[in-house]
Each structure stands twice: as structure tokens, then as C-alpha cells.
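It would be a great kindness if you could assist me with a short task in structural biology. A protein sequence and the C-alpha cells that stand for its backbone fold form the material at issue. I should value your view on which stretches of the chain appear to form regular backbone elements. The record follows directly beneath this note.
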Amino acid sequence: MAEKKIEIVSTRSMECEQQKQPVSPFLRQLLAVSGVVMYMIGTGANIAYPGVLLEQLRQPDSAVRLTPEHESWIASILGLALISGILTAPFCLQKLGRRLTNQLSTLPTLAGWALLLTAKDPIALLLSRSLQGFGMGLQAAAAPVSIAEYSAPKHRGVFLASIAFSFATGMLVAHVFGTILYWRTAAVACGSCYVVSLILISISPETPPYLASKGKFNECRKSFRWLRGFDVNSEKELEVLLNTQKKTTLTTPKVSKLKYYSDIVRKPEFYKPTVIMMFMFVLFQVSGMTVVPSYTVPMMSEVTDGQIESYTSMLMVDVVRFVSGIIACIVVNKLNRRTVLFLGIFITVASLFTTSVLLYLRDFGYIPDPYKWTPVIPTLSYIFGKTLGILPIPWAIAGEIFPLAYRSLGSGISGLTLSLMFFVVVKTAPTSFGAIGVKGTFCIYGLCISICGAFLFFLLPETKGKTLYEIECHFKGLKDKIDRIDTCEKDRMLELEKVEEG
């Protein structure tokens, strides 16, 4: 009886505290997430910037002379540099925390843009891109983890989907500024995203799960309630988080590093999410997610057969991608993750094969001259499909799928797959376009997407609406534990209703 009175007093006290908060929990979460989102806008600009940089440097009066080999390295070296950042990320996330890792990741990217402004030869351009890639590697591992840990389950989908919107926005920004401004001036506009990101990250708290994992339980409570308020569901989730970490701290034995990591890789809650994310990021890259922004102009020139001006077709692609990114934020929050992903895969594969067929028919003279531009329609449909499902869902799943104890390591390993595929796909794209054309390249992409999609159909669970702890229990095979959490929540709600009625 005494415990019930204490709980009633605690509940009413929390309600009073909640009434004192001038800003809603949603807006606080939005503030915390916005710093990462601004970084991802910069990442989109980084990926798309070669699309305008290389076009300007091909002009006869260019300040820097490039060979075709230089061009392919400038576009693809981000992928290699990402590896160094991603290999560093698990250590930073585990030892320094999410917030400090996010802050540190802005520094090399800012240095890269600063070096780009003063570049006078291809080596300086490659160094600047390498610095940008290193920072992007740190953030590639930190971004989905940070957003997921800042967000309430009901908002997590839209916040994680905002990564897709951020990429699309950054690509549009880079191409618009690169079209109307000199490439050095455009670099200032793109680099400013990281300044804003650093400011927003610095005024946000550390994530509650990281604080709990380090035994800083009072700080965890403070951060969690600042972000999520004091409602019953949030308090229940907070107590589950704290109790789980307290038990983990008490029961974790001291073992050698070798045995520690060998034990981890055999745990289903680690290797299952890791395999899923490796397929996810292979799917992400073979869909042309980073190839298209880097080579939009030559790709669209072949698709349109020169009937639409190259920069106009590039901006058409950017606008479709931007609008699709906005739709993705809405759809991911409304529909199941699996539904959105496989819808995006279906649209993408169908559009790629349709574009290829039309291009082959045009080459054989079966499409009249006035209609040679028609492959543009399925090409834009392809951009829509991959931005709707293939772009947001891998990042949404990456933030949700790894258990707290292995979140840093899992993000690093899956991010390594992302960076390797980034380099391979972007580096081989010019050769592929030259040897088999856009039509042949699209056929290969469509086949690879279909294979990855088939594997994910059987491997990927639904995560929408579940807490991070419930997702962890799923991979551990502890369905009964999830049921007990739901039962306890129902009992708690009934008890509170009785108290209110009394």
C-alpha cells in the first residue's frame, strides 16, 4: 500500500514537471536530431558535388586540369576514405559517446571543404575529398544510432527517414549552387552545412542509452526526461533501460578481448542484425544511390539522347529525389518498414528494366525521333522508387536493429560494407557506362537489387512501433519477455486508471 502511494505521488510529481516544460518532447527530440540531419545534408552535398565540379573542370579555361582517371578517383575516393572513418567510429562511439563523436566528425569535413577552396591541382582535390570521406565515415556509423537513441518509438521512423530527405536536400543544394555559381563559391555554401550541424549538436544532450551503458544512471534519467518528458510509456521504457543496464553491469564477467569478441560474433542478436545490414547496404549502393548524383549529367545525356539540356535533366532528377524524400518521411512513419522497402524495390527494379528495354529499342530504331526522350519517364520513376524505399529504410533499420551493447561494433562492421561498396560501385561506373552503356548498367543494377531483395524478404523482421529493447529481445528469441513487458504495461495503465477514478 505504501509503495502504491509513493508511485501515485511520483506520477503526480512527474505530471507537474511535465506541465512546467515550455517545449514539447517532440520539439526537444527534433532539436537533438536536427544536428545529425544537417550533417547528412552536407553528406548529400559531398556525394553530389562531383556532378558539378567535374563538369566545370572540363571547361577549357578550368583552373585545375584533370584526366579521366583523376575524375573517377575524385568521385570514388570518398568510399575509400569512409573506411578509415568507419573503422574509427566503433571506438569513438563506445569511448567518447554519440554526442562527441558527432561533434568530432564535423571537423575533418570542414577541413576538407576549406582545402577544396584553395585547391590548385588534382592532389589537393583528392586530399580534400579524403578528409570529407573520413568525417562521413564517422558519421555514417554515428547518425542512425544517435537518431534512434534520441527518438521515441512513435517518432523514430520519421526521424530516421529524414536521413533520406537530408541526402536528397544536400544533393539538390550541391547541384543548384554548382549550376549557378563557380565551383569554389558553391563549396562555401555546401560546407556551411557542417557549421550549422556543429552548433546544433553542441547544444543537444548525450543520448540516454549511452549514459546508461556507462553506468551514469542519474545523467541518463535527466537526458531521457529532457528528451521524452514524463508520460507513463516513457517512464516504463526508462526503467526497462536502466534495469537492463544495471543487470548487464553486474553479470558481465571480465574476459580477454579475444574471447569477448569471439563470444559476440556467435550471438544471434549480433550476427543476425549484422548480416541483415550488410545486405541492406549492398542494396543501397547497387541501386545507384551514390553513382547517379556523381554522374547525373552524362547518364541523363544518354537517357534523353541529347533532347533535354544536361543541366535541366540533372535538376529534374534532383527535384524528383527531393520530393520523394519528403514523401518517404511520411510513408515510413505511416507504413511498416518491410512494406516501404519492398515497394521501393519493386518500383526500382521495374523502372530500371523498363528504361533498359526502351534504350535498346531506341538503339535499334524502333522508337521514332520525336519520342526518343521517353526513357526519361521510367528513369525518373527509378529515382522515385529508390528514394522512397531503398534510401530511407536501410538507415532506419540501422538505427533500430543492433542491441545497445553491440551497437557501436555492429554499426562499424555494416558501415564498412557500405563504404567498400561505395568505392567499388562509383569507381567502376565510368567503365561500365563506357563499355555497356547506361542500358546495360541499369540491367546489372536491377539484377543485383532483385537478389538482395530476395534475401532480405526472408531475413528482415518488422521493427516499426517497437522499442529498441523489444527489437533486441526478438533477435535473442525472447518473445516471452516482450509479452511480459506488454502485460506489465497494461497492468500499470489499469492501475493508473483506477487511481484517477478514485
